[in-house]
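Researcher: Structure prediction, please.
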Amino acid sequence: MADMNIEQSFADGVSEPMNEFEAEERRADRRRRFIIVGVVVGALAVLAAYFMFQGGAGENAGAAGGEGGPARVLPTVTVIVPGSEAISNTISASGTLAARREMPVGVAGEGGQIARVLVDAGDWVGAGQVLATIESSVQSQQVNSAAAQVEVARSDLALAQAELDRAMQLVARGFISQADIDRKTATRDAARARVNVAGAQLNELRARAGRLAIRAPAAGLVLERNAEPGQVVSAGSGALFVLARGGEMEMNAQVSESDLTRMSIGQSATITPTGTDQTFEGQIWQLSPTIDGQSRQGTASIALSYQEGLRPGGFASAEIVSGSIDAPMLPESAVQSDARGNYVYIITPENIVERRDITIGSVGSAGITVREGLEGNERVVRSAGAFLNPGDEVIPQRQSQDDDS
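Model: Predicted structure follows.
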């Protein structure tokens, strides 16, 4: 019985190490199988990607690399051929509104204290209408005194004339000499001269008193009022009122040197004040004879009849029609700009990107007019030009300019 236990113990002690060894071997086999499967799967993925990308280049890659050459993936760009059409040549400009003819009105006489102001800014006035009056009590007394002096001079003249008439009746009878007649005639003439002097002095004082009433030199619109009752004014006080003669307005549009050469007197223009959608029609009445040396711009003055929406000093935009031209029109997405100016990218017959500098004209909802730089038969990159560089090779895809897709 003891021998049996010893043999059983020996058998148990031998079988236990053998089972652990086999388990380790099985685990190693599984790891090797996993590694082999992973390598195979990775190789298959690489091959699939290779064939996928090679096939993805498709017909375009073959066209780019040549039928027998290596396949290349080139960017596809949308191009348009704008053509040329008759386009209304409209020049856009901006500027300020002002009175066409400003009339500053100030004190014409010796001045004094303002008694009344009879108008306000925005009022219409007629020629000669009183705008304000200056206190004139002293001047009124001076006028009254001068008028009395005239009456005195006239009385002296009447007396001298009566004495001369009586003397003329006595000279024929010999009661008075011719010398007395001459003296009385001279006295009469002196009295008449004093009447004229007194009358002139009266008229002068009346004119001075009349200048105390500040009047409008011509009919127009009151733009500014710088006078208030009680204010003491003189000839050096500056303009108390500013009038727009006839209410006429103008817009001083700032235009480029090249645009100015294409304008002429009488061209029509549409004015839109800033902040409103109301438009006003006008005509160019004056073109600046000089160009600003810094901005390289000139001024086109557009005459406007007065309407309530026009306020001098305000800002406005103008659309000036100067005939029509045959020119290409491009969407805004096709035109780019940098320090050198405006440009577009065109695609050469060899499908190479090329920069083309242009001069733009009017800009509107329909697009941008190209005045110089394009003939209209070029393939122009419609969009994504910012991602291209001159010299790049691309695959052009022509698209109608009117297609929004």
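Model: DSSP finds four helices and 23 strands in the chain.
Researcher: Thanks, that helps.
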